[in-house]
């Protein structure tokens, strides 16, 4: 526990600038934005900038007050403009009396189609006791940049902090990245931890989520482009770098964000389109596939070549995916690229191979993972590393040949394959495919529920189970299902099919246990889902 007064003296805002951060908020060839923080006694500020050895120019800053749980401060943003492409500049920020040291940056090359950027996700760290120490992250990123010195900017896929509705965490992050983000633009996406808060942070009591990501938007509203959907700006924004267009997607307002994505991407004629959204669409663990937002944002999200994500603290790369189908060629769909933890916070026993991913790695070592993206004309190389430059995965996407290397063909099954949350039910169900009869999909209900981990009672011509808090009995040759909340009629009768197993209409299974299913018609896959992340096991008396 620490008081506001103690925090002010310890790591609170002062007259001298801190939290100095570069960002792309305009043409990356001819402008650069710098953001910084001071105490509220400092009411105005400006940046001075110049080509190395040239004449100083001045950019007056916009200022806004930020009242947080621990401090009151002023946030400044200055836009350094009329820059020369591919040129190194030096700058300083503050006011007449209190200024930063001199830092350097380099603008994007003119009309470049060749550049690199660093992708990180889930770099959050720290418990409630201050200070939130991100110094190790700073060391990790500095080593990455030593190994990959041509990185032009850093893009994140969310969970930049462990609890974004407290000043303690943001101060920890920005302090930990000193020596990095004063030189390289730091382009953040929101994660669920970045808009999370507690009424009492030190006791972790009364957790809540700020739908508008208040602390994030108040600090970085001047740093990032003001071009997102109305009422959801800063959390959502887009920018260009070279021959590529980037959309950074927040965690709320999916229906409004989808409309914005469609309009924003339609206006771009860039060769490559990248998205960054914290929650993975092609997930690896027991999460549901962004069911609360992805259906509403599917049209917009599938306008991208690659969608970067995080959340699960593990690595996976999907086949090109569009409208619940998996393909081979990059022109046929979006590659969903889920990155591991960038701050030694691996998933540990949360992941399993899934049908939609052609590559995955169970990130369980206490090492950071990161991705270097190299754009070279119509050729894109994605390489994910563990610390020490151990390559986890590398793929090349080539628009000219419409190919991905290494080659991986999305599966097409001759008999409809049964899956749960994208996972194959295994060897025991290889002879229990789903069946479509008179337009109704049927699935072997006992095999499905046992795989999930529920007890199943099989009587003569009956199957009974309690799953996800609901009990249902299915009877051979009957459409009627008896449940704990009454009975209902299914689209078809229960049938005895493969290997004498009782098959139940898929919609009946879903209605009884509050599940849902998707059919991948190109791949001939039927995958059931449930929103619960619980991994049940059979009861042992």
Describe the protein's topology.
Elements: H1 4-10, E1 18-23, E2 32-39, E3 46-51, E4 57-60, E5 62-67, E6 72-80, E7 88-94, E8 103-106, E9 114-120, H2 135-147, E10 151-156, H3 167-176, E11 186-187, E12 196-200, E13 205-209, H4 214-220, E14 237-241, E15 244-249, H5 254-266, E16 272-277, H6 294-301, E17 306-309, E18 315-318, E19 321-322, E20 325-326, E21 335-338, E22 357-361, E23 369-376, E24 379-386, E25 390-398, E26 403-405, E27 417-420, E28 423-424, E29 435-437, E30 440-444, H7 445-452, E31 456-459, E32 462-467, E33 470-475, E34 480-483, E35 486-489, E36 495-496, E37 502-505, H8 506-513, E38 516-520, E39 525-529
Parallel strand pairs: 9-10, 10-11, 15-16, 16-17, 17-21, 27-39
Antiparallel strand pairs: 1-2, 2-6, 3-4, 3-7, 5-6, 7-8, 9-23, 12-13, 14-15, 18-21, 18-22, 19-20, 23-24, 24-25, 25-26, 27-28, 29-30, 30-37, 31-32, 32-33, 33-34, 34-35, 36-37, 38-39
Q: Which whole number gives the mean pLDDT?
A: 95
Give the CATH level 1 class of the largest domain.
Alpha Beta
Estimate the global geometry from the Cα principal axes: elongated
> What helical percentage do the residues reach?
10-25%
